[in-house]
Design a protein that fits this description.
The structure is a homodimer of 212-residue chains.
Chain A lengths: L14 E2 L2 H10 L2 E8 L2 E8 L1 E3 L2 E7 L3 H6 L4 E14 L7 E15 L2 H15 L12 H5 L1 E7 L2 E7 L17 E9 L3 E2 L11 H7 L2
Antiparallel strand pairs in A: 1-9, 2-3, 2-6, 4-5, 5-8, 6-7, 6-10, 7-8, 7-9
Chain lengths: 212, 212
């Protein structure tokens, strides 16, 4: 899915163009940054997402600006990234971060009423698989208040950097410390709501996520 | 700094418009998503940043598309966000995430040659304070290969959600589990580079960050 907009020119060795590898990165996270043009100006909005096949789903209040613009079918760019650590080289120039990032392009499209529930489930499953079956599903009014936008991925690319710093050969003799500082995302224990009825156990979806 | 583009209309109780509070959020992170218009299409690119006063600095290879576009002085939108946990309500509709996010608007401007080093130090200090003094500073050729873009913040707003789920009154009687799943960012121990000379200790900047 490489072409003009998504071809990575800077540090091409970090580029990933295989869809299945890119989707693995997308599926780890739930927050993306959606860019679109509004009144001639660029706007980037952070929002939750779900993915199924070559489709990205985002949702919002029916009257939100992002949603009412995207449902017009306009072009959109979506970006997500994780910083997994700092990479400290001997030279300022070769400092970097370890990361994985995805940038994709497509067009917005409003999900039809009769497919809205299914699309919302895709977002829900993407964030915490199985939760949809363990809660009260949307009422008619709640569905009315919500719109879902489908973005068909037209172009996509990813970049990944891992490992230690790479310095210029002559710099390895310098007396500067070099190495990595890992950033780890840790999923904490589930915190029951204060108002939770006393006889309700932690459900499967939560156990699967927090590993307890 | 509230006006048309940055006024938060959805869930306005989560909005933050005080500059000092917004900057606290911006200063916790180092990765943002930069949106601009290229050939009439929106593009969002993840990149590192630094902040000083009302200025955001980003850098890149002198020939990178993002840099060569932004140095033309075009409009730009910058977004950053942290998901601090999932918020599981009894109803699908009231599911949410705890997060902090910032969206800002401004215009790109190329940092002049004689101020480039200073701007790079701002980015470096933003990511890991004090590191600039503990490494080999950029050579003339390295500076030539790098450009820095300054974005004066013209509009900015933030949103924050914390705490437990809020359900509709009648849903509190339902037999569904509700609560929070915290996501914690943990800074790991520093990993010295394999090729590190044996007599080099972990420097102050790293100790300050990893807390050891």
């Amino acid at each position: 899915m490489k072409n003009n907009k998504s071809k990575i020119k800077r540090v091409p060795k970090r580029a990933i163009y295989e869809k299945k590898d890119i989707y693995k990165i997308l599926d780890k996270e739930c927050l993306c940054h959606v860019g679109f043009i509004y009144n001639g100006s660029p706007i980037v909005i952070p929002t939750l997402y779900g993915r199924k096949d070559d489709l990205i789903y985002i949702h919002g209040a029916s009257i939100s600006r992002m949603i009412t613009e995207l449902e017009k079918g306009i072009e959109v760019s979506v970006s997500m990234a994780n910083v997994n650590g700092l990479v400290l080289a001997r030279s300022a120039f070769h400092h970097s971060v370890n990361y994985e990032s995805v940038v994709l392009f497509g067009k917005g499209k409003l999900v039809e009423e009769n497919k809205k529930n299914e699309a919302l489930k895709i977002i829900s499953d993407h964030i915490i698989h199985g939760r949809w079956e363990e809660c009260r599903l949307p009422s008619e009014n709640e569905l009315k208040a919500t719109k879902v936008i489908e973005i068909k991925i037209e172009e996509i690319s990813a970049k990944v950097r891992t490992g230690s710093p790479i310095d210029d050969q002559q710099d390895y003799e310098l007396d500067y410390w070099a190495g990595e500082i890992p950033f780890n995302k840790v999923i904490g224990k589930a915190i029951p709501d204060n108002k939770l009825k006393s006889d309700i156990n932690i459900p499967e979806s939560v156990k699967n996520l927090v590993g307890s």
